[in-house]
Design the sequence.
């Protein structure tokens, strides 16, 4: 009975035509909705960066790299031993070194990597981001790199700066000297651009790929390689797997480098930033939620006569506590639902708005980040967490008005009516 009466009273006070919800109440609801929307938008953007870091950047870059201190032979036994380590999903040999990519009147430094197109998909999703001039989509675009033809894949940023396209000829210049009839010259090779890497990450501005056999010829390695790249099932198991991988080589001097060394600080910064922003903006939601107290106190003041009459008719204190709890949920629910809806709508629209603004006004706002666009991911877990915290704060905000109602003395109130 108390619960049914509380439900009816709370609904009447909040939504009936005669309730006249004050301007303060609507401001409180609007403030709560705005603060929740801001929290949803900020967390969605941080989630987007975290997702792109893990899927796009870590999907293309190897999780673990093993470099020999000097070129090493590609031994099948070592390859199989690395592949059998628990947690390793794939292993591939590689050749890597710095180089210059030159065209008339322009030059660009790149990290030149020699890969085997048939096996590189085990450690990288690079092929998913390669654009070619093939008339039909290829199952493995990396197969455009054919041994002996010296084809090269250029990052989109490198190609753009050099004004190079698929089919263009560029010159690779290596920091190694060759002796010729005219003296000592840097080693160079004319190559053909067979594909463009468009991962929309920092990789696009510094990467170039050759077939591993062509890279071995350029670096004069014979059949040797520079090392192995590994893909891991769990990114955070890199230190343990790195130690196991080092043991495979015994006394052979190798350097084991994981993603934690190159991008670990960035990943940790994103996680800490998300936690910090959630905490700070949760305080903002708390302030907006407690603004409902003023609205509820207005209702207490406006409905003091109704409360007094009901108290004289035998309504219990618990009934009014439940009434204001439901009233807080009703008013706060408007703010929470409105904020969630508004936040999701704006968050999902941000990438398109950002892309339009960048293109229209020639802005380059994301050039300093590892992706050059604005990533956004709305996660249901975050929405549930925000809703739970807001609901808790809303219920707490109902305690003081309920306490004020419990102290109401019907005789004093009705004497002034």
Sequence:
């Amino acid at each position: 009975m108390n619960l049914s009466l509380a439900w009816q009273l709370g609904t009447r006070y909040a939504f009936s035509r005669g309730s006249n919800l004050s301007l303060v109440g609507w401001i409180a609801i609007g403030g709560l909705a705005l603060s929740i929307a801001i929290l949803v938008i900020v967390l969605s953007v941080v989630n987007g960066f975290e997702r792109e870091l893990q899927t796009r950047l870590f999907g293309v870059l190897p999780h673990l790299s093993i470099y020999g201190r000097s070129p090493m032979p590609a031994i099948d036994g070592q390859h199989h031993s690395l592949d059998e380590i628990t947690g390793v999903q794939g292993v591939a040999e590689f050749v890597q070194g710095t180089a210059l990519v030159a065209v008339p009147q322009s030059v660009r430094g790149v990290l030149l990597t020699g890969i085997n197109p048939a096996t590189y998909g085990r450690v990288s999703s690079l092929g998913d981001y390669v654009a070619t001039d093939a008339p039909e989509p290829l199952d493995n675009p990396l197969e455009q790199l054919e041994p002996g033809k010296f084809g090269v894949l250029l990052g989109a940023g490198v190609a753009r700066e050099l004004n190079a396209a698929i089919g263009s000829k560029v010159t690779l210049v290596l920091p190694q000297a060759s002796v010729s009839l005219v003296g000592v010259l840097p080693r160079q090779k004319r190559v053909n651009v067979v594909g463009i890497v468009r991962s929309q990450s920092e990789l696009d501005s510094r990467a170039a790929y050759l077939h591993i056999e062509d890279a071995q010829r350029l670096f004069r390695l014979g059949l040797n390689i520079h090392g192995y790249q590994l893909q891991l099932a769990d990114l955070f198991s890199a230190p343990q797997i790195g130690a196991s991988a080092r043991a495979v080589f015994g006394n052979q001097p190798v350097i084991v480098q994981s993603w934690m060394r190159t991008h670990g600080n960035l990943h940790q910064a994103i996680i800490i930033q998300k936690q910090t922003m959630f905490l700070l903006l949760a305080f903002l939601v708390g302030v907006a939620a407690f603004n409902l107290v003023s609205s509820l106190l207005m209702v207490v003041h406006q409905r003091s006569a109704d409360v007094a009459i009901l108290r004289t008719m035998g309504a219990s204190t618990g009934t009014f506590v439940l009434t204001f709890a439901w009233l807080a949920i009703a008013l706060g629910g408007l703010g929470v639902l409105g904020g969630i809806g508004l936040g999701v709508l704006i968050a999902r629209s941000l990438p398109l708005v950002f892309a339009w603004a960048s293109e229209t006004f020639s802005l380059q706002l994301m050039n300093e980040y590892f992706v050059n666009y604005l990533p956004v991911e709305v996660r249901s877990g975050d929405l549930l967490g925000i809703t739970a915290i807001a609901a808790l704060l809303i219920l707490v905000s109902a305690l003081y008005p309920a306490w004020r109602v419990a102290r109401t003395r019907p005789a004093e109130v009705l004497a002034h009516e």
Q: What stands out?
A: The mean pLDDT is 82. The chain is about 50% helix and 20% strand. Strands lie at 64-73, 88-103, 106-115, 130-131, 151-155, 169-180, 183-197, 207-211, 224-232, 254-258.
